[in-house]
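Methods — Computational structure assignment.
A single polypeptide chain was analysed. Its primary sequence is given first, followed by the predicted tertiary structure written as structure tokens.
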Amino acid sequence: MLKLRLVNRSARSVLCTATLTLAVILFSHAHAEVVRPVDCYNASLRFAALLDVLRAEMGKPVMGRSPLQVQNAAPREVYFQTETTFIKINRLSFELTREEFPEPPTPPTEITPADVLVVIEASQVVLEGILSYFAIDQPAIDPPGIEDRTPTDVFNQFATINRQINQMLDQPFLPSDVYQRVTLCLNYTTALRANFPGPRIPETPPYEPRKKPADVYAELRQCFVLVREIATRSGLSTLSVNDPDEQLDATIAPGDVYDFSSLLLAELRYLQGKSDASAQPLESFYPGRKFPSHVHQRARLLLTQLTELKGLVDAEPDWLTTGEP
């Protein structure tokens, strides 16, 4: 376990960055063959325990489990869920200490549990830095002794961790953040559409007022169903999302929608990686203040794009150059 005990902010910054860099190098190269999903799960329990120490010190309430619960997750999907954890704990670090740290680079090859563990450990470095900054005691956390877990278990654990971090932020993830993420999904879908002839971008649907985060979440669920059908038709596999819990629907916040949009983005990146299209996705930029209705409009445009793409893939299922690894 990476440890961080610092005397002042300057020393903390230097040691955090050095430790993070060392973690990326060591785990990427030395442990690629030995890390198992259960190792990632045990690391998630240690992270959650330390996060709860900080939560209690901040006087924040405990959040329930995330509405995003999945089945049949692969390490690449877990990776992007833990990447969201790093983004959120890094934002919390900046809010509380004015320190933020470089994100571990996405592996260029097939993602393994070792790559997932790199991001978990990097996130823990940031979390321990926050605790050290405020001189909060960090209790010793004994290994839980769990011997068997799947990538799905790790994914679902971090889905709930991400929900907790969002509640601890002074500036939680807002509709504007989700809008930017959905726009990036649109850009990836546009790049995928370039594999086929014809116009790439449909007309924007009309604006519908007074939408809520739960409405956007429901729209993105429909988008995910289409992405999963496109992948299946193309000879690829993706995880499946559990049916929504009606009791949780009323509690869905923009942070939950952001997490779901991140999952959707991960699957679109996966499809793009299998494609030989020359078109590359454009970056998305902060759009300014947006409301849930703006994001809902954006999500409906994405749904239209994906519907058209599915029809094209149905007619030409061998459109990808490579199959399942």
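Note: The chain has two domains: 9-168, 175-315.
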